[in-house]
C-alpha cells in the first residue's frame, strides 16, 4: 500500500512536469501578449519575435514576394524590420531592394505618379499622393468630387455619401491649412487618403460602414442640391463657397479625427502604409492604434501590418483564450508542486519507518544474549 501511494505521487509529479513543459511556451507567449495589449508597438514586437523564432526566413521570403510584385516600398520595409531584429540578409537581396527603391524614387517615376494623382485623384505611392494632395490643396480634387456626387444626390442617383462628406470636409480643412500655413496639413492629407481609399475600394468594410454613418449628417442636402445646380469645376471660387455653406462642421469631428490619425500614419509609414491601415481597420480606434504603431516603428510599419494584419493593432486571439493558456500553466505548476510535496512527504515517512524498524531490530538483537543468560541460570538452579 505504501509503495502504491508513493508510486502514484511520483507518477503525478511526472505528468504535471510534462504538462508544464508543454504549456510553458504557450503560456509565456499568452502572458506577454496580454501584458502588451494596450501598446501596439510592444504587441507587434511580441508577435514578430514569436514568428521569427518559428521561421527565421519569413522576412527574406516576404522581401522576395514584394520585389516580385514590384512593391519596392514593402520590400524596403521588410529590410528595415530585418535590421531592427538582427535578421541577416544576403548582400544580393539587399542590392535588389536598393535598386528597386532607386527606380521608385527616380525623377521620371515621380513625375508620372504625380501627374496621375493630380488628374485622376488616385494615390498608391508618394508620387501619386503628392499629386492628389496638390489637387485637393488647390480645391480642384474636392470640387470635382463634391460636384459629381452632389449631382448624383440631386438627381436621385446612387451617391457615395462618404466621398461627398470627405470632399466637403476637405474644402474647409484646406482653407484652415492655408490660414495655419500648413498646420492642418496632416488632416488634409488624411482626408485625401481616406477619400482615395474609398474610391479605389481599399477602405475596409467595417471602417466604410462607420465612416458612412459619420459622413451622412455632414452635408445639408437641400443646400447642396442648390449649390451644385450652378456649380462648375471651372468656377472653383463660387463652387467652393456654395458647397462650404452646405457643410456642417459641428458634425465632422469624428471624421476629422480619423483623418488626422490617417495623416499621422502617412507621415511615419508612408502613403502605402496608410492605405494598408485603412484596408484592415474596422473602425477609428484601429486607425488610432495604427498611428501609435507607426510613430514607434516608422518604416517597419508596412512589414508589420503585412505579417500580422489587424493582429498588429489588437489581440488576434481572444483575451479569454489567452487567459486559458496562462491558467492552464498555473494549474499544471500547482499540480507539480503539490505532487512534489506529496511525494516528498511520503518518501520522508517511508524513510522514517525504515529507520525506526532498523532501530527496533538493533534493540531486539542487543537484548537477545541477556535473555538467553537469564534462562540458563534459571535452568542450573
Q: What distinguishing features does this structure have?
A:
single chain; 381 residues; mainly alpha; 80% helix; elongated
Short characterization:
With 381 residues, this protein is mostly helical. 80% of the residues lie in helices and 0% in strands.
Description:
Keywords: Membrane, Signal, Transmembrane, Transmembrane helix. About 2% of the residues have low confidence. The protein is mainly α and 381 residues long. Helix 4 packs across helix 5 and helix 14 crosses helix 15. Among the domains are: 76 residues; 168 residues, no CATH class. The chain contains 18 helices and no strands. The chain starts with a helix and ends with a helix. 80% of the residues lie in helices and 0% in strands.
Amino acid at each position: 500500500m505504501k509503495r502504491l501511494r508513493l508510486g502514484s505521487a511520483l507518477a503525478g509529479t511526472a505528468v504535471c512536469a510534462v504538462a508544464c513543459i508543454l504549456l510553458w511556451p504557450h503560456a509565456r507567449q499568452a502572458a506577454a501578449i496580454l501584458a502588451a495589449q494596450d501598446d501596439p508597438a510592444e504587441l507587434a514586437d511580441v508577435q514578430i519575435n514569436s514568428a521569427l523564432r518559428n521561421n527565421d526566413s519569413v522576412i527574406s521570403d516576404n522581401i522576395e514576394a514584394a520585389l516580385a510584385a514590384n512593391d519596392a516600398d514593402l520590400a524596403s520595409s521588410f529590410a528595415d524590420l530585418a535590421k531592427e531584429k538582427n535578421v541577416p540578409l544576403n548582400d544580393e537581396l539587399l542590392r535588389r531592394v536598393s535598386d528597386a527603391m532607386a527606380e521608385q524614387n527616380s525623377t521620371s517615376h515621380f513625375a508620372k505618379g504625380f501627374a496621375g494623382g493630380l488628374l485622376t485623384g488616385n494615390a498608391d505611392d508618394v508620387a501619386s499622393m503628392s499629386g492628389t494632395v496638390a489637387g485637393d490643396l488647390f480645391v480642384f480634387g474636392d470640387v470635382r468630387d463634391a460636384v459629381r456626387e452632389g449631382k448624383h444626390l440631386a438627381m436621385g442617383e446612387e451617391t457615395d455619401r462618404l466621398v461627398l462628406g470627405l470632399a466637403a470636409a476637405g474644402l474647409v480643412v484646406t482653407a484652415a491649412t492655408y490660414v495655419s500655413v500648413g498646420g492642418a496639413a496632416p488632416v488634409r492629407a488624411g482626408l485625401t487618403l481616406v477619400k482615395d481609399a474609398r474610391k479605389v475600394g481599399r477602405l475596409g468594410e467595417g471602417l466604410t460602414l462607420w465612416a458612412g454613418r459619420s459622413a451622412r449628417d455632414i452635408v445639408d442636402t437641400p443646400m447642396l442640391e442648390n449649390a451644385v445646380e450652378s456649380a462648375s469645376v471651372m468656377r472653383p471660387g463660387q463652387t467652393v463657397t456654395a458647397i462650404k455653406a452646405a457643410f456642417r462642421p459641428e458634425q465632422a469631428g469624428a471624421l476629422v479625427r480619423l483623418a488626422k490619425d490617417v495623416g499621422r500614419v502617412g507621415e511615419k509609414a508612408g502613403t502605402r502604409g496608410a492605405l494598408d491601415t485603412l484596408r484592415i481597420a474596422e473602425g477609428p480606434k484601429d486607425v488610432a492604434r495604427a498611428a501609435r504603431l507607426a510613430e514607434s516603428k516608422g518604416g517597419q510599419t508596412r512589414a508589420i501590418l503585412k505579417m500580422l494584419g489587424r493582429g498588429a493593432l489588437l489581440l488576434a486571439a481572444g483575451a479569454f483564450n489567452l487567459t486559458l493558456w496562462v491558467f492552464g500553466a498555473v494549474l499544471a505548476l500547482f499540480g507539480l508542486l503539490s505532487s512534489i510535496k506529496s511525494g516528498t512527504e511520503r518518501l520522508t515517512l517511508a524513510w522514517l519507518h525504515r529507520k525506526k524498524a532498523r532501530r527496533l531490530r538493533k534493540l531486539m538483537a542487543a537484548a537477545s544474549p541477556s535473555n538467553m543468560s537469564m534462562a540458563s541460570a534459571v535452568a542450573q538452579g
